[in-house]
Write a structure and sequence with these properties.
This protein is an alpha+beta fold and 535 residues long. It contains eight helices and 25 strands. It is globular. Bound molecules: fe (ii) ion (FE2). It comes from Caldimonas caldifontis. This is Phosphodiesterase.
């Protein structure tokens, strides 16, 4: 980007202006705002993104951060105005809408533009301008009209991108795919570090808003992640690592005091919002943030994104050494308590109402984990991970019984979190062949995060006949294609550790036939169809 003024001189100038403004604040309640600083360094280092596509609009995002790893992103602590424009073509010959938006240090100089009034079912290009600098160009699209007969929906399902544990080669491929949308279902970043699997560093565990902002900035500096954001609109929900591993509502393993944990959660949610293409109305209020939402794709599909963290009951049967999360074997009466919930009763009711009234062909549940069972049979009883849906069996049964009793067809759960590709049947009573299959599930493996070792994964497979496919040895994402006849999941994958130039292959292909719950193998093991990407 073209140098304008020396950055230090600009900062000194702005510091003097800030002091003058502080004095002026004593006299006048309304302050004059500088239009935009002049940058010597590119302020668009974190790229651009779009998300939450609707038939009439989409959210555009960027954050000004000329020094992204510095506190404040290298921005002066003042309000700044940006211009945005959205066009039919990538050269901006046909600009359809443009506007101005203010941002400031209270939101890390991030912007979330909720563009409205766009024609449905179209591809658009967008960019931002500020202080003589222009952002990279992003590509996005609006959803088809609500009542349209849509032939095809193609989405990439992704989750679990530990920066330290590999390169984001899966995002490199996602960026080049012909997709309608990316559905990211959690663990967008990791607060933890494992020195055994560290290929690169992402900085210390964040504990403050400044720390979470730096962490998000570190992730966005990855060019493959930025490319995937710039190429497609994203729909997101979260899991635990965006805040703290295995947290449940107001409790975290490292924060037994709810007030201390909620302060951490507020910082984490604020930084999460600031760095992702989420609608302005989603901005958190302290430690609370609404992320569950409903999306449509013509008459072909309806998608509910679910929040399995903010409203869940505490983990069942905690041990003294592991008060939150962990594994249990054998008896735990609390596990079956019907008062325990994964989504919170309000969100459960909202989802069941939505499912019962949906007129769309496919009903998709985008959520952070694996609904199908994966506990392991042992001589002491089933050994299960209390943080997973296995730890909330009554909530799982309510969800699936609600689908069965209302005879809701073509429901597919789309999950992540467990670092393995899974195709599974969903029954009201898991693994019980007399309990009919009422829905289907595809779970994506991680973008990078290490999966279960082979022997443990073998036990998971042999203990759970509902899992038709479950492999934890490769990283990647799921390419999902939906039409009126089939939902087809192509498990794209590469072996761990992920080399910087690794190429993905198709590990397996599974499908759900319209009107018939349950997954069927098309190609249970590779080789399989070539990806539809340009070289
Ligand atoms: Fe994860």
């Amino acid at each position: 980007m073209a140098p304008m003024l020396d950055r230090r001189a600009t900062l000194q100038q702005l510091a003097r202006a800030g002091a003058a403004l502080a004095l002026a604040r004593l006299a006048a309640p309304v302050l004059a705002r500088p239009e935009a600083p002049r940058f010597t360094d590119d302020p668009f280092t974190l790229g651009v993104a779009s998300g939450m596509p609707r038939p009439d609009g989409v959210v555009l995002w960027t954050r000004l951060a000329p020094q992204p790893l510095e506190t404040g992103g290298g921005m002066p602590p003042v309000a700044v105005k940006l211009q945005w424009e959205l066009a039919d073509d990538e050269h901006f010959g046909q600009v359809r809408q443009r506007g101005e938006v203010w941002t400031g240090p209270e939101r890390a100089h991030a912007v979330h533009v909720d563009v409205k009034g766009l024609p449905p079912g179209r591809v658009y290009h967008y960019r931002f301008h500020c202080g003589g600098a222009t952002s990279p160009v992003g590509r996005t699209r609006t959803a088809p009209p609500d009542d349209a007969e849509v032939g095809l929906l193609r989405l990439a399902l992704a989750s679990c991108q530990h920066y330290e544990q590999g390169h984001f080669v899966a995002h490199r491929e996602i960026a080049r795919q012909d997709l309608d949308v990316v559905l990211f279902v959690g663990d967008y970043l990791y607060e933890t570090s494992n020195p055994d699997f560290r290929l690169r560093r992402h900085g210390p565990r964040p504990t403050t808003l400044a720390g979470f902002r730096r962490h998000h900035a570190q992730y966005k500096l990855d060019p493959d992640l930025r490319a995937a954001h710039a190429a497609h609109p994203w729909i997101l929900t979260w899991d635990d690592h965006e805040v703290e591993n295995d947290y449940a509502a107001d409790r975290g393993p490292l924060h037994r005091d709810p007030q201390a944990f909620l302060a951490l959660r507020a910082a984490a949610y604020q930084a999460y919002f600031e760095h992702l293409p989420l609608a302005p109305w989603m901005a958190p209020q302290g430690p609370d943030m609404r992320i569950h939402h409903r999306y449509t794709w013509g008459r072909l599909a309806e998608l509910w994104t679910l929040d399995g963290r903010q409203f869940r009951s505490p983990h069942a049967c905690p041990s003294a050494e592991r008060p939150v999360g962990g594994r249990i074997s054998g008896a735990c009466a609390e596990l079956m308590d019907p008062q325990r919930t994964m989504l919170g009763f309000e969100q459960e009711a909202w989802l069941q109402r939505g499912l019962a009234h949906s007129l769309r062909h496919w009903k998709l549940l985008g959520q952070g984990s694996q609904i199908s069972p994966w506990s392991v049979a042992t001589p002491l009883g089933r050994r299960l991970f209390t943080d997973a849906w296995d730890g909330y069996p009554a909530a799982r049964e309510r969800l699936l019984a609600g689908i069965a009793e209302a005879r809701i067809g073509n429901v597919i759960a789309l999950g992540g979190d467990v670092h393995r590709h899974v195709a599974a049947d969903l029954r009201v009573i898991p693994n019980e062949s007399r309990s009919p299959v009422v829905a289907s599930e595809f779970v994506t493996t991680s973008i990078t995060t290490r999966g279960l070792p082979g022997y443990a994964q073998g036990l998971v497979r042999s203990s759970n006949p509902d899992l038709k496919h479950a492999r934890s040895d490769e990283r990647g994402y799921v390419l999902l294609s939906l039409d009126a006849q089939h939902a087809r999941a192509e498990f794209r994958a590469t072996r761990f550790p992920v080399a910087a130039e690794a190429r993905l292959h198709t590990q397996a292909v599974y499908a759900v036939e319209s009107g018939r719950a349950g997954v069927q193998a098309e190609h249970p093991e590779g080789p399989s169809p070539a990806p539809a990407i340009e070289p």
